[in-house]
Amino acid sequence: MAEASSAVAFQFYVADDGIHYECSPKVLYIIARMFFKGTGKRFARIKNKIRSGTFPSSPLHFVLFETLLMIYYIFHPGLIWPIDTVMSYIDIAYRFLPWYANLNWLLQTFYITLPLAITFWFLYALLLHYCLRVLLTHISWVFEDPKRPTLKTKIWAICLKILCGYSTELLYSYQRALPKLPVPNLNSTISKYLDSVRPLLSDEEYKEIEDLSKDFLKNEGHRLQRFLTLRSWITQNYITEWWEDYVYLASGRKPTNPNENTSPYPGIMINSNYYILGLVFDKGPRRQASKAASLSHLFLEWKNKLENENVGPIKTPNKLVPLCMTQYKRIFGTTRIPKKGQDYLMQTTGRKSGHIIVYREGKFYKVDGYYRGKMVSAKQLEKTMEEILSDTTPASDAEKHLASFTALDRDEWADFREKYATTGANKRYMDMIDTAAFFLVLDTETKHYGNLPDEYYGEETLQYKQTYDNDRPYFSEYCKSLLTGNGSNRWFDKSITLIVFANGSTGMNLEHSFADAPVLGHLYEVVSIVETDYLVSAKSKKRVVYKNFMLKSDGKRYTPDGYLSGNGNVTSGKYERMEWKFNEEAARKIEIQNEIAVQAADSVTMKAGYFPHFGRETIKQCNCSPDAFLQMSMQLACYKSTGKFSLTYESAMTRLFRDGRTETVRPVTAESCKFVKTMLQDPIDVVEAHEALQCAMKVHVQKAKEATTGQGIDRHLFALFVVSKGKNIDSPFLSKVIVEPWKLSTSQTPTNQSGVDQTNFPECSTGGGGFGPVTRHGYGVSYIFTSGLICLHVSSFKDSPYTDAVKFYDEIVEAMVQIKNICSEAIALQKESAEKPAELTQQNGNGHLTKAPKLSKKFRYMSYNDSIAEPRVQSFSY
After folding, report:
1. Domain total in the chain
2. Domain named Carnitine O-palmitoyltransferase N-terminal: which ranges (predicted)?
3. Residue 523 within any structural domain of the chain
4. Residues 552 and 361 sit within 8 Å (Cβ to Cβ)
5. Is 532 domain-assigned?
6. Residue 82 CB: number of other CB atoms within 10 A?
């Protein structure tokens, strides 16, 4: 209403007795308030830019320079003639100002020294910034043992701590100091690529790709490398923009040359989007309206803090090295807009994105998050959600299934929007969705984790134990609903689709092009812990909590009966029901699309569950990297399932560099293949298998570190391919490499990003997240480690005769048990040899010393159903 009122804020008219005017004090107040608020925001943005631009220096350093210069000017003038000369000229310049002569001597001294203080502070900030950039280019610490760092790394860490340890950090304080992603050496990349595919190809196939690589290096390779190097000099990150445009935003369309590996359903619902689960032990309310209102309010708080940059940067586990925070810019108010050929991202900030869209049983509502410039309370949002839930007016089939267009082919969605949503009320409603902070679904179904393993419950979590039907895969159904819904009750274009089920369980469906899973996982972990008041319990137990937790919790969010705390007589916030207008032709197209979306949603098989027998700490006790352990388990399971090795994708984070996103780790190596074949022997040689495992994991960890530090394979080859297309340079080698299908796509979900120790607080653990299969005959596997458990998410297409998510899940679990037993037996043998050296010799019947019998080191495979705590093998001999 403020905009309409401002039109009549001033009125004037001319009469015989002169000019008359009227003004509205109320409207003038609104205009003045808007002006000062806007000025305040602009000032805050300028202040943040100055603070981030001068980091790691701080305004305190300016005060110090100003104080020292004033002391020098007053007590010791003439010692440093350049400074005295500059001050004299400044004094002469000030004398031309009429107000200067009326100031007392102290203020005159302040003004004379002010320009020099600003200059010295600016130069000092540049020096510190340069030192910070130099320190952050030191990457070799990644390859060192964190428990035994080199002297060089210790000195580096001390310098970095001194330089930044006493400065206030904002969201983007480190952005300008982060190093650029390096372009790897071309010969090294080709060599690594050939090593990675050698176990996957026959001799003839390998000879073909090797010859192509030689021709590539001999002809166009180095020319393309020079173009790419030049691009790296003039851009912040040579790959990120191309990766976002051509891998994400150009995807989701019907392929021009489909093959047996092509996904059966184009679109982003299965092939791009992913999901994240809520807390496993959620002590929050089971009331859907209260839960939705509480989370929505916290999301809006986070949105404000991100826009004001009042969120500290995430750092590596050593709490020293900052990660790139660029992806946080687009968490809220971002929508993927369909466009023929390639989509684009649209972001809306500030109050223009201060509303949310609520979807309930086919009806869309716009809910304002602000009223008169202030955020509405969580209690008001709760009242609004209750009114929406009680709305019994029916929705038309067209509006009920409209969201199915966001799930499938992007070009068809672009055509529909262009024809039916660019005019009238439909355009207005579509703009509301595009500019909303996020999308909220009040689902009619009930979802939960189901029966958790008994090993999961401790004293603090036993209260959450419930009994459900063991024959029903509740957890898998929960994950499947978050990923696809029914095909038409998720708005897959929005950066965040928050889903609250009828029983209060929650989760998110997330668009992938704007940010990667760790960013949204951090958001949801923090919000979920605060929303359930676990932060308060952590503080009350005097545990270490992340110092910059971003959101506050007072432990009084809910009343005992599950309602949000606050005035019970509060009125609801402002909301509006959208009334879409579609003609028969548009409605018919929506129904056709919905039928396909239902089929697409039903085409995915999802298996999710907790592996209860051991977790991260047990794996570490076996001297194994948890990630490498699980990757080797998947390789063993995959070979047992298919009888061959499959090209495997694992994502690695490259946020040590500016605008970094991900790189690919290729877990299939000659060492991993040797380990798998060793595990297929009957009987298994324990020592040989354990040595092969350690070698394979060592190589895997090394390759993961190389990917993290910008020395991977696939992003480099992809960038060279883009250059070849842009320069019209034909490259048979790159054309063959770029279309290789990833049969097994894997990713690890990070934990403890909130800083709350989930070992001491298992209530704060989540079930991780997952995604769909990336090829018709492939798997999508995601996993998350907790101290005592491993959570697995496996997906595949139902119609594929080569894949079965449920079976593959069991095979991974079986492989983990088998590898764990190998490690346990090998460590036991090593300990026995170390503790009993005397047994290496023994007396024979004549009293002479001889060598003791050598251990056979062989045992037959222990089945998954056997006890883990007390390993029982079918055959073990000495």
Report:
1. 3
2. 1-47
3. yes
4. no
5. yes
6. 7
Q: Is 667 exposed, middle or buried (0-12, 13-18, 19+ CB in 10 A)?
A: buried
- In this prediction, residue 146 carries a pLDDT of 85
Contacts of 472 (CB under 8 A, 6+ apart): 450
Measured CA to CA, the distance from residue 562 to residue 168 in angstroms comes to 38
Q: Please give the Cα distance from 245 to 725 (Å, whole number).
A: 14
For residue 88, give every residue at least 6 positions away whose Cβ sits within 8 Å of its Cβ, in sequence order, or none. Answer: none
Q: What is the CA radius of gyration of the chain?
A: 31
Kindly state the helix (H) or strand (E) to which residue 664 belongs, with its residue range: strand 662-665
Containing 3, the helix (H) or strand (E) segment is: helix 2-6
Residue 324 sits in the same domain as residue 392: yes
Q: Which two tokens stand for residue 780?
A: 């999508």
What are the φ and ψ backbone dihedral angles of 614, each rounded to 5 degrees? -160, 165
Q: Which helix (H) or strand (E) holds 346?
A: strand 344-347
Stretch (H or E) spanning 780: strand 779-785
* Measured distance CA(693)–CA(671) in Å, rounded: 8
764's tokens: 């704060």
What are the backbone dihedrals phi and psi of residue 288, each rounded to the nearest 5 degrees, phi first?
-60, -45
pLDDT above 90 coverage of the chain, percent: 61
Q: Are 716 and 706 in contact (CB under 8 A)?
A: no
Residues 820, 801: Cα–Cα separation, whole Å: 31
Which CATH number is 684's domain given? 3.30.559.10
For residue 371, give the 3-state DSSP assignment. Answer: strand
Q: Among positive and negative, which fits the CA dihedral 502, 454, 459, 551?
A: negative
pLDDT in tens, 236-245: 999 999 999 9
Task: List, in order, residues 6 or more apart from 141 with CB less than 8 Å away.
Answer: 149, 153, 156, 157, 321
**Cβ contact 653:232 at 8 Å:** no
* For residue 405, pLDDT beyond 70: yes
Mean pLDDT of the chain: 86
More confident residue, 488 or 28: 488
Q: Check whether residue 209 and residue 303 sit in a common domain.
A: no
Residues 359 and 495 in one domain: yes
Is 873 among the domain residues? Answer: no
Alpha-carbon distance 484 to 504, whole Å? 19
- Candidate from 130-144, 458-472, 641-655, 831-845 with smallest mean pLDDT: 831-845
Residue 303 and residue 257 share a domain: no
Q: Compute the distance between CA of residue 375 and CA of residue 370 in angstroms, rounded to an integer.
A: 4
Which stretches of 520-660 are assigned E, i.e. beta strand? 575-577, 604-611, 648-653
Give all strands of the β-sheet with 355-360 in edge-to-edge order.
575-577, 363-368, 355-360, 439-442, 496-500, 506-510, 274-277, 769-771
Residues 304 and 372 in one domain: yes
Q: What is the pLDDT of residue 849?
A: 42
Q: Got the DSSP string for 549-569? A: -SS---S-SB-TTSPBSS-TT
Specify the length of the chain in residues.
878
Active site positions, annotated: 512
In this structure, what are the phi and psi dihedrals at residue 216, rounded to the nearest 5 degrees? Answer: -60, -45
What b/e string do you get for 699-714 counting C-beta neighbours within 10 Å, with b at 16 or more? bbbebbbbbbbbbbbb
434 lies in the same domain as 377: yes
Strands 744-748 and 779-785: parallel
759 versus 197: the higher-pLDDT residue is 197
Please give the structure tokens belonging to residue 381. 């949002």
